Amino acid sequence: MPRPLDGLRIVDLTRIVAGPLATQIFGDYGAEVIKIEQPGTGDDSRQWAPPVAPDGSAAYFFSINRNKKSVTLNLKHPRGKEILKALVRQADVVIENFKPGTMEDLGLGYETLRRETPRLIYCAISGFGASGPKREWAGYDSIIQGVTGLMSITGEADGPPVKVGVALIDEITALYAHGAVLAALLHRERTGQGQKVECSLLESGVASLMNASTAYLLAGEVQGRWGSAHASVVPYQAFKAKDDYLMVGAGNERLWKTFCEVIGAPEWADDPRFASNAKRVEHREGLVGMIEERLQARTRDEWVETFGAAGLPTGPINNVGDVFHDPQVLHRGMVQEIVHPTAGKVRLVGVPVKFSETPGEITSPPPLLGQHTDEVLRDLLGLTSAEIERLRKDGVL
After folding, report:
1. What is the pLDDT of residues 198-207, one digit of tens each?
2. Which one of the listed residues 170, 271, 322, 394 is annotated catalytic?
3. What is the DSSP pairing of strand 245-249 with strand 236-240?
């Protein structure tokens, strides 16, 4: 079946997380993604192990690099620069996440590339942004979680700051970059004009604060750490049942009344201490204690089933292994199996967005380093096997 981005070609100069995840999304939707990697070492995340796949490859690399072609290219070699420019001339989009100024120093910056390819969409992803006093600072996700305040609002109230368990700001930045490039492509479709798009982990992280940021900007309130609880809604947090933890929330008065009935305390709905969400927030500590006491009567799964049947937002707190045995996760195709050239059959996370007419899919596994170098140079640039071999001997590939 056709995919929504069939025919789109992307030159991918990214590594680690944010950039590769953005380009993987494009690949899932049908774009041809040509991943340019440093000869001999490749993407840093190829070395981020353990855990590893059956062939010893880093599982981290597998998570964000499917549906791509790997080409090794020395961008410091004059011939390597020429080859990159030739590839860009046949591409729609370039995405890179070097430190600001690096591509310009290589003679491969946006202004240089756009002279030969005016319709080019050029996306630059950095840690702190392309300008300003911290433009050259290194920006790993966990560092940005601290700088943007995300760590200050994550964790228990009486505990230290905690980072989110995955590279969340990298992921948010990838999604912003993906959407921004699509917007730029739509603009080009309408006007014929290419442009440069800039994304940074810092700005994406600040944008991700949502209500925590507006609480400060509008009301001067600095949010603290609430653990699993919600600063503005009660009840809405993790609770311990007889055997394990679950999440349940009552975000409006109708759900609050339903919650009271299901938990076996309909009188709470008429209690003046809990007459509104504001009142429940005010009396949070006492109410949470009363709920926890009631929940001890049944197991987690029994409560989840009962709450769910009543229409209350609820769910178990699964570990990662539990997630991939969840019948709904499996039904929605969020586990896919594909054959890797050296690791054999491997399972990967499926495509989360479903299209009715042009579904995304996993068509190829994460590539071996340089796996497609000869194919791309031969098919796109018309180089012969002898020319490619000479480039390899000269250290270009």
Report:
1. 999 999 999 9
2. 170
3. antiparallel
